[in-house]
Amino acid sequence: MDGRSGRKPRALTRQLTWSIIGIIVLFALIGSVLSFVGGYREASRLQDHHLHDIGVLVNSGKLVPATPTVMWPDEHDAGMSLIISRVSPGGAGTSTDVPLPRLETLADGFQNVDFDGKRWRVNVQTLQGGDRLVVAERSTIRDEIAHDGSLRTLVPMLALTPLLLIVIVLIVRGALAPVRRLAATVDGQDEVTLDSLSEAGIPKELLPFIRSINRLISRLKDAMAQQRRFIADAAHELRSPLAALTLQAESLTVATDPEDARTRLMALQVAVHRTARLVEQLLALARSQHAAAPARSLVSLHKLATDAIQDAVNVANAKNVDLGLKQVDDLQVDLDASAVTIALRNLVDNAVRYVPEGGKVDVAVVNREGFLVCSVKDSGQGVPDDQLVRITERFYRVPGTASSGSGLGLSIVSEIARRNGGRLVLENASDGFHATYYHLL
């Protein structure tokens, strides 16, 4: 057993909702990290610019510290937060009170310096007069400023994410609402109220699916209507022969003379045979209309043709009809033997029944250009041209026809041709009536 058949079906709404939420949360996290890192770096860059600008102001003389070394204490602890120290060439270097390495050990430019367990961001410049200037800021102060600035860029995004998720859930549910309405509509239908689904308000992406369902509903309606017509027609056609059988059986019970009883019994046997033939054709028509996938097998064309002739030989002998094979390909073909047998047998039976007494019926079965061609030609008078289009209708018989029949033979062949991708060609000719069945191989 397929293990997947026992799995509980997944809700499309839940699947879409959680998929979109997962993607948004993932991208929100990635965006938050990138925003935080970018904001942190931008804040650090701005602070480096401040340190550089201080050096520029001092170098230009626009900012003159009162003493060679100026220090700003940290508001949160006893340490220093900002230091500006200027040292002349040949001087003693930075003061020992400055919590930094000696200036001569530092190169010009920005650098991170660790001293006494604290990290500093240091900008060293050589001024125009040859003095060297160091502007240093505690890294912890810088980090706090950069961290706070980055968080302020994240707060709106993080605050709006839950609201965005709620909006997504509502949008997904609203977008799939037409599907739920369609499901309710379909569940409310039965064989009496089977109607096509409305396309009003349906998203464009679902229209092909809805139209496919509507085509399926149309086919179901046609099949159900065809089934109802078949049942009604079959009941109508069986009513008369069954009534005749009843009357003949009753007349047989009151017969006193042996010869009269024998005559009535023979008439009853003929009626039984005719009714059995009608039932057989009804069953064949039902199978041709509702057949499953064809079962293909290798079949001898010669055997197909001889079997069809053999089934009709008794009726042919009774009417003195010359029934025989005109042409048959002696080979085996892979096809649906049941369908071809029924079609060919009905064509031969139809020709033998309707050809005048002493007439001729020729049968040919050949393989031609991808089709199995079953041709049955009789020497009868044919069918009026205005009746050709109707003789494949069920239970239809040409007016004025004297021969017995149910009007189902050609209808069965036509239905088999339709289901197997073939065709039935009926035509009048100078030498009689021709019926040709093409079966797609």
TrEMBL record:
Q: Which residues form the Histidine kinase domain?
A: 233-441
Supply the source organism's classification. Bacteria, Pseudomonadati, Pseudomonadota, Betaproteobacteria, Burkholderiales
Q: What's the protein called, per UniProt?
A: histidine kinase
Query: Which parts pass through the membrane?
Result: 16-37, 154-172
Reported EC number(s) for this entry are: 2.7.13.3
Question: Which Pfam families would you find in this protein's record?
Answer: HATPase_c, HisKA
An example of a Gene Ontology cellular component annotation for this protein is: plasma membrane
Cite the entry's keywords alphabetically: Kinase, Membrane, Phosphoprotein, Transferase, Transmembrane, Transmembrane helix, Two-component regulatory system
PROSITE patterns linked: HIS_KIN
Does Isomerase show up as a keyword for this record? Answer: no
> What membrane topology is annotated for this entry?
Multi-pass membrane protein
In which domain of life is the source organism classified?
Bacteria
Q: Where in the cell is it found?
A: Membrane
Recorded catalytic reaction(s): these are: ATP + protein L-histidine = ADP + protein N-phospho-L-histidine
Q: What molecular functions are annotated in GO for this chain?
A: phosphorelay sensor kinase activity
Q: Which organism is it from?
A: Caballeronia mineralivorans PML1(12)
Q: Give the main location.
A: membrane
